[in-house]
Design brief:
Helix content: 55-70%
Number of strands: 0
Radius of gyration: 40 Å
Shape: elongated
Amino acid sequence: MIDYETFAKIRDCRDRQGLTIAQTARALGLHPQTVATWSARARFEQRRSRPRGSILDPFKTRITRLLDTHPYSAQQIFQRLREEGYGGGLTILRDYVRRIRPPDGLEQRRLNVRHHVRKILALAEIYPADAVARAISDGLAFQAFSAEYITNILEARARALPEPGPLQLTRRHDLLDIDIAPPDLNAYEVNDHDPE
């Protein structure tokens, strides 16, 4: 494949200088067949490469589904795809997973609505529907929309409170009526008496 500048030189040798194909090839250091091919063309056209398919193409939807359901590593996905007939290498899979994996971090999770909806729907399978609805409405009241906040509310409400015992039933005025003996400060007194 030649560039536009070489094409222009071929045209110049042929049209302006009147050189033959063999002379042009020698002058430009090209193969005579290349000069003949490009001399016959009326204008320069870059080669259009056909998009090649990837060995991953049949598995891309499966990879996306796996990443949507769980944050699998590329190695774990590789092992699962091997069982399903994937014959490619780990490196191409790692590169693809790195490109499509949702970014990690708190800010990205805050913006990922699918992540939160998926987690809240999973909570509805664990906790009663009315408890989840109440937690969602409480979250909305505080403008806290994350799945983690809803989870914390549900876990706090499901947690059994300890039975009140004697230590939790102390009275406030009992705590203030503490008798403390005055400290013995005799060791710190200055002795001005002469022992004589």
